[in-house]
């Protein structure tokens, strides 16, 4: 019997749940969170307590909930990805800051305005209220672990769309026009993959209920088609739009990290990152808490912010993708996949082409 069947959940399902927190039945955690008889909007999966060793670590498995069953193919050990994530150090990740690229052209204003409208809608759907400066401690702006997860899941389910649409359209354009793509497709698809990994990671911690699934379905239907049409009309505006969207994502994760550091999310202080995250980001031993996980995710978002603002500065018809380029003078700083040379507002065209 594999570990999944051995730990089959006994679900206390409550129909109104839009997102269910899940955890192994570590009694200390249940007692600590009070979730056993907590909010009426929560359904909770309980599992027999297990203290087995983790697959690639000596750390004990504690509060990890497996939503996705292990591979059922008897001859396959695992499925490898072509997009191996670069290693980030803690020092690098702590350097990430909230930043904003000023809107300069009318196209920038369209992108920024659209992000603001979408942000308003996303706040509404996910029940999020961002506190104005000085009001961070007001009760009405406080977020719980569930509320953060609801926002993360919704945010990431939308964030995985633009890279795939952009990559797909550039792929089709290359086929149709019989022209080279100059390296953009891979970076765009990799971004979509990275966002999907964010989503899968959070889905290891929380299981969305029917309402959230419905919201995601509706948002994807509208957003995919809207972005598809917009990318056909102006890839430049679309990359700028994603750059501004990623600025918002950095703000969101920065606030969540601060909430953990300020003791506002006690259930996450000891909660380990899911195994999928440990493997994907190659999280080192001793740096696998939820805070560490959010540092990784935030760094990724900051990278997307840079990449998309940079792509928004380029000529999408003729310029090579600087993240795939090999430069004649490698001694000068250039964009790469890491976060060492990160430019929050993107690289200007004359710097990289
Ligand atoms: Fe993301
Ligand atoms: Fe992102």
UniProtKB/TrEMBL annotation:
Give GO BP annotations, semicolon-separated: alternative respiration
Q: Where in the cell is it found?
A: Mitochondrion inner membrane
Gene Ontology MF, one: metal ion binding
Main localization (coarse): mitochondrion
Bilayer-crossing regions: 210-232
The record's cofactor note says: Binds 2 iron ions per subunit.
Basic and acidic residues bias spans: 326-353
Q: Identify which cofactors the protein needs according to its UniProt entry.
A: Fe cation
Q: Which GO terms describe its cellular component?
A: mitochondrial inner membrane; respiratory chain complex
Which residues lie within the region annotated Disordered?
Answer: 312-353
Q: Which keywords appear in this protein's UniProt record, sorted alphabetically?
A: Electron transport, Iron, Membrane, Metal-binding, Mitochondrion, Mitochondrion inner membrane, Oxidoreductase, Respiratory chain, Transit peptide, Transmembrane, Transmembrane helix, Transport
CDD domains recorded for this chain?
Answer: AOX
Q: Which residues are noted in the entry as Fe cation 2-binding?
A: 195, 246, 301, 304
Task: Kindly list the positions annotated as binding Fe cation 1.
Answer: 156, 195, 198, 301
Task: State its Enzyme Commission number(s).
Answer: 1.-.-.-
PANTHER family (UniProt xref) = ALTERNATIVE OXIDASE
What role is this protein assigned? Catalyzes cyanide-resistant oxygen consumption. May increase respiration when the cytochrome respiratory pathway is restricted, or in response to low temperatures.
Q: Which family does it belong to?
A: Belongs to the alternative oxidase family.
Q: What is this protein called?
A: Alternative oxidase
Q: What is the lineage of its organism?
A: Eukaryota, Fungi, Dikarya, Ascomycota, Pezizomycotina
């Amino acid at each position: 019997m594999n570990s999944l069947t051995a730990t089959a959940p006994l679900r206390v399902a409550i129909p109104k749940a839009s997102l269910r927190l899940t955890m192994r039945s570590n009694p200390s955690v249940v007692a600590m969170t009070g979730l056993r008889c907590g909010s009426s909007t929560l359904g909770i999966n309980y599992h027999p307590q297990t203290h087995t060793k983790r697959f690639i670590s000596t750390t004990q498995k504690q509060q990890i909930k497996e939503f996705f069953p292990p591979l059922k193919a008897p001859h396959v050990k695992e499925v490898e990805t072509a997009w191996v994530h670069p290693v980030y150090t803690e020092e690098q990740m702590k350097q990430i800051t909230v930043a904003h690229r000023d809107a300069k052209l009318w196209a920038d204003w369209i992108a920024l305005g659209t992000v603001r409208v979408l942000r308003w809608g996303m706040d509404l759907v996910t029940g999020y209220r961002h506190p104005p400066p000085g009001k961070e401690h007001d009760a009405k702006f406080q977020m719980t672990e569930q509320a953060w997860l609801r926002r993360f899941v919704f945010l990431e389910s939308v964030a995985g769309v633009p890279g795939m649409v952009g990559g797909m359209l550039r792929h089709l354009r290359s086929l149709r026009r019989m022209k080279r793509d100059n390296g953009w497709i891979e970076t765009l698809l990799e971004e979509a993959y990275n966002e999907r990994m964010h989503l899968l990671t959070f889905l290891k911690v929380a299981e969305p209920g029917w309402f959230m699934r419905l919201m995601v379905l509706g948002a994807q239907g509208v957003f995919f088609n809207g972005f598809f049409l917009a990318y056909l009309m102006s890839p430049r505006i679309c990359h700028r739009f994603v750059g501004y969207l990623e600025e918002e994502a950095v703000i969101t994760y920065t606030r969540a990290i601060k909430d953990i550091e300020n003791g506002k999310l006690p259930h996450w202080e000891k909660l380990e990152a899911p195994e999928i995250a440990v493997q994907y980001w190659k999280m080192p031993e001793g740096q696998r808490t939820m805070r560490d996980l959010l540092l990784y995710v935030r760094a990724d978002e900051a990278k997307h912010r840079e990449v998309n603002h940079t792509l928004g500065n380029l000529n999408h018809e003729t310029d090579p993708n600087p993240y795939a380029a090999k430069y004649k003078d490698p001694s000068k700083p250039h964009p790469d996949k890491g976060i060492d040379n990160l430019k929050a507002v993107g690289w200007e065209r004359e710097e990289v082409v």
